[in-house]
Structure formats: structure tokens, C-alpha cells
């Protein structure tokens, strides 16, 4: 049975056809099996947002769409483990709060809490994971990374300012007030949730203007990750299907000729294993010094796969899924968007 609050939210945002496909595709958290029509809980709004963002990722990743369509056609489903996004921790960020602060102000009212910090020093970044308090194992987590421009050259830093210095804040005053109410009460009237959902989904987009090609090339020379942000902004870098055996899946996808990562990443704990498709190539526009625009092929988003082993929780006296991440794994996965622009 579908949660009618979530169904109503998604149908108005995406239409009935996409909504139906999403319910057919994604795992349904058990906490959402009970609901009160007309009152949207933070878990329901979080799940609706996650489902809409998953659909947006598939629209940008043809490989992810093909995999998902095949999975459903074969009678399977997708266990949405986490989505990842990149931010820039930089004071010259226009109206957008620097770094992950632009998203924690959304995630916390929705019920997400910090679940781990991961230094990504090879990339000049820091990653943090956020899991949902009400259903951490079933509502997809967020892996939010911050890039630190101060770790790069002064020329690089100026290019960052040129790109993101006039960023717009996607949150309206009404959305800020609604998020405050949600954080206070844990729920919203459905009319308010209908107003809020498209605003918070829209936050996961590019909030700055078309970058200058010269700035993009300067960024790309030092950080493929910042160059990716320049064209894609705060869109989902990737979405992840939790599967039973990522090693077998990797072999199967390679046999189909899919652009898989050569090796599966293994966490130091021995309980988290990840692989991914290489990023889909997309065409993006850039401004030039003479005022024209040019188009280049650049790395877009991609689709990831993860296997999480369980561990015995002595306090709870139960087996629980290891929901942590691994800095080494993350840095390996990030390389999926490291190909140069053409």
C-alpha cells in the first residue's frame, strides 16, 4: 500500500506516471506504512524529497536509467542507500551559505543527523554523512562533501570566486519558516509540504551562472571535483543502489560492456564495498571572454553500487547494518568524474 501523503506530494511535483514508477522502483521504509492523511511527517517529506532527487539523477545519468529499467523489468527493485553532493566551503559564495551549511539547514529539519566525518585530503575536501533518525537503515543517507579552496593556488581561489561568487539562495523566506516549523513540530500540514517540496528539491541544482571557460580550465587543472561543481553545481553527484553482492554485480555489468570502475573499493573495516559506473558525459555551455558561449562535453553524474555487511551491536544485542562510509572508498569513487572536458 502506498503512503498517500508521499504519493500526493510527488504527483503534484512530478506527475502520476513518474510517481508510479518511483514507487515501483525504490524500497519503501517500513516507518511509512502508517500515516495520517493531511499531516506530513518529517520522514515522509524526507522520503518524498529523496525519491524526487533519485528521479533527477536518472534524468542526468543514462547508464543509471538503463540499469534501473533493467532491474525493474527483471522483477527487482532498488534499495536507495545514499545520494552524494558536492559543495564549496568558501566565503565568497554569493547568497548561498558556504559549504554543507547550505544543506544541513534542510537536512536537519527533515530528521537527518550527522553520522560520520571523512577527511578526503587527497582531493582537498571533507565529507560528512547524514542518516535519518527515524529510519537510518531504510531512508537514504546523504554524503555531503565540502571542497576547501584555501588548499589550492591563489589563481585557483580567484577562479572559484569568479564561478560561485554570485550564487543565489534557493530557499525563500517562506521555505525557511516552514523548515523551522518542521524542525519544531516534526510535521507540516500537507498544503505547506506541497509548497516546500519543490523548493528544497530545487536546492540540489546549480545556483550560479554559466562559468567562464577560462575559469573552468583553471579549476580543472587543479581539481576535477571543483571543475565538476562549476558545471553541475549542487546536483546529485551520484545515487547508490544497495545490493547483496557488489562483486558479482560488477562482473555482470562488465560482461554487458557497461563502463564500470575497474576495481571494487573495500573499506578498512572490511564491511563496506563500493563500485560505480563512470560518469555519463554531458554537454554544458560556457561563457567566453568575448561574450559568446561555447559547448563542451564534460563529466556529469553517475550511478553507484554498495554492499554493506552487518555487525553485532552489543548494546542493542542485535545485528545491524554498517551504515558508515570510508574515506579511501569515497576518494576512489570520486574518480568517476575525473575525466577531462572535451
Number of helices: 12
Specify the biggest β-sheet. 8 strands, mixed
| Total beta strand runs | 14
The name of the CATH architecture is: Roll
Characterize the overall form.
globular
Structural class: alpha+beta
Estimate the mean pLDDT confidence. 96
CATH topology: 2,3-Dihydroxybiphenyl 1,2-Dioxygenase, domain 1
* Beta-strand percent range: 15-25%
CATH C-level category: Alpha Beta
Helix proportion: 25-40%
Radius of gyration: 20 Å
Distance N terminus to C terminus?
A: 47 Å
Which H/E pattern describes the elements?
HHEHHEHEEEHHEHHHEHEEEEEEEH
Low-confidence stretches: none
Number of domain modules: 1
Strand order of the largest sheet: 3-4-5-2-7-12-9-8
How would you describe what is shown here?
This protein has 342 residues and is an alpha+beta fold. The protein has one domain: 2,3-Dihydroxybiphenyl 1,2-Dioxygenase, domain 1. Helix content is 39%, strand content 23%. It contains twelve helices and 14 strands. It has helices at residues 4-14, 16-25, 42-60, 62-73, 101-107, 154-164, 173-185, 190-202, 213-222, 224-232, 246-255, 327-334; strands at residues 39-41, 80-88, 112-120, 125-132, 141-147, 187-189, 238-242, 265-266, 272-276, 281-287, 293-299, 302-308, 310-313, 318-321. The strands form four sheets. The protein has an eight-stranded mixed sheet with strand order 3-4-5-2-7-12-9-8, sandwiched between helices. The chain has a two-stranded antiparallel ribbon with strand order 1-6. Strands 10-11 form a two-stranded antiparallel ribbon. Strand 13 (310-313) and strand 14 form a beta hairpin. Helix 7 crosses helix 8. The longest helix is centred in the N-terminal third of the chain and has 19 residues, at 42-60. The mean pLDDT is 96.
Amino acid at each position: 500500500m502506498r503512503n498517500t501523503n508521499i504519493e500526493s506530494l510527488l504527483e503534484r511535483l512530478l506527475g502520476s506516471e513518474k510517481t508510479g514508477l518511483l514507487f515501483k522502483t525504490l524500497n519503501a521504509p517500513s516507518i511509512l506504512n502508517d500515516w495520517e492523511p493531511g499531516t506530513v511527517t518529517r520522514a515522509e517529506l524526507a522520503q518524498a524529497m529523496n525519491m524526487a532527487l533519485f528521479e533527477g539523477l536518472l534524468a542526468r545519468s543514462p547508464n543509471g536509467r538503463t540499469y534501473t529499467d533493467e532491474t525493474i523489468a527483471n522483477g527487482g527493485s532498488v534499495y536507495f542507500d545514499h545520494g552524494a553532493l558536492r559543495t564549496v566551503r568558501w566565503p565568497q559564495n554569493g547568497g548561498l551559505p558556504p559549504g554543507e551549511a547550505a544543506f544541513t539547514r534542510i537536512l536537519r529539519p527533515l530528521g537527518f543527523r550527522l553520522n560520520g566525518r571523512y577527511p578526503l585530503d587527497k582531493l582537498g575536501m571533507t565529507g560528512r554523512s547524514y542518516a535519518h533518525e527515524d529510519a537510518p537503515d531504510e531512508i537514504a543517507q546523504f554524503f555531503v562533501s565540502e571542497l576547501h579552496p584555501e588548499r589550492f593556488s591563489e589563481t585557483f581561489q580567484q577562479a572559484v570566486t569568479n564561478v560561485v561568487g554570485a550564487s543565489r539562495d534557493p530557499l525563500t523566506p517562506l521555505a525557511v519558516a516552514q523548515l523551522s516549523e518542521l524542525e519544531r513540530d516534526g510535521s507540516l500540514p500537507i498544503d505547506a509540504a506541497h509548497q516546500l517540496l519543490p523548493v528544497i528539491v530545487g536546492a540540489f541544482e546549480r545556483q550560479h551562472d554559466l562559468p567562464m571557460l577560462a575559469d573552468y580550465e583553471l579549476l580543472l587543472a587543479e581539481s576535477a571535483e571543483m571543475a565538476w561543481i562549476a558545471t553541475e553545481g549542487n546536483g546529485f553527484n551520484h545515487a547508490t543502489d544497495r545490493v547483496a553482492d557488489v562483486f558479482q554485480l560488477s562482473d555482470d555489468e562488465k560482461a554487458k560492456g557497461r563502463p564500470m570502475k575497474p576495481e571494487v573499493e573495500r573499506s578498512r573495516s572490511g564491511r563496506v564495498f563500493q563500485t560505480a559506473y563512470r560518469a555519463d558525459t554531458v554537454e554544458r555551455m560556457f561563457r567566453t571572454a568575448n561574450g559568446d558561449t561555447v559547448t563542451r562535453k564534460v563529466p556529469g553524474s553517475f550511478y553507484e553500487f554498495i554492499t554493506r555487511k552487518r555487525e553485532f551491536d552489543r548494546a542493542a544485542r542485535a545485528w545491524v547494518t554498517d551504515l558508515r562510509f570510508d574515506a579511501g572508498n569515497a576518494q576512489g569513487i570520486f574518480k568517476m568524474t575525473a575525466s577531462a572536458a572535451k
